[in-house]
């Protein structure tokens, strides 16, 4: 079988396709023939050598796939063989065959293609944890989504609309029309507008109740200032660390140093809250994640979870796919196609 290996830290040239023996499932595991695999910004950071959770290189990354169960290990129901599924894994998703615990495998809804199915695990679980589990978003509360055109941003918008929140977002101008059609009520171009001033004007200086921020750096401080009393700020990335003429590791340190430090007394006096989300660090806590995934799958059935696929690249075009995301050209999810996936 083929897998995509990050041979070392660097540009897209370090992504190489290797032929390896097929893995076999162990106790409690299944083997999945992959139809589509999701690409996430964490993969870009891992390639550049600034994602601390990534395995030691050479390595295979990838958190989510859709496909067909080909075989099962000990203590797994053999009747699962042949099921069409969506699955989560710690790493290893850039491959034609993957192994993952059965507890992280979910039946693919018939209404979703394999491509749509592979958009769900990372984006929607992250958004659900940010908005529902830790953000406590309520009807008529005001939500600001940074990078609203990203995969997590669109997932967050789906969830927020279902809750009945008032939505604001930042995104580059070419994504605005799509986001407005998708239901985003207020959108700002972070490249040409001072979004903090815009938020203050729109809300009459009241601020917003929840902000989700994958950017880091000075944007974190601006997000904190945009919070209303009892507002919450959910941090889930440092994407600005990849945008620099300096070395990526230098810029990562620079980005972190520019982020504010929140003293508990300041938070108490301001009646504000800060929290962080890293869905990769939820691995091994499936008793929490499975109910979240069930709620998301119910949303698919009810029609308010609408995974959006921006582009699908052939397995061999992984370098182009990485560049497409790194250049912020995508609106929603970018995927690698491992096999033909026209069948439901």
Would you mind describing this structure in some detail?
The protein has eleven helices and 15 strands. It has 344 residues and is an alpha/beta fold. It folds into two domains: 2-119 and 308-337, Medium-chain alcohol dehydrogenases, catalytic domain (Quinone Oxidoreductase, Chain A, domain 1, Alpha-Beta Complex); 123-280, NAD(P)-binding Rossmann-like Domain (Rossmann fold, 3-Layer(aba) Sandwich), CATH 3.40.50.720. The strands form three sheets. Strands 3, 4, 5, 6, 7, 14 and 15 form a seven-stranded mixed β-sheet that branches. The chain has a six-stranded parallel β-sheet with strand order 10-9-8-11-12-13, sandwiched between helices. Strand 1 (2-6) and strand 2 form a beta hairpin. Helix 3 (120-133) crosses helix 10. The longest helix is centred in the last third of the chain and has 17 residues, at 286-302. 46% of the residues are buried.
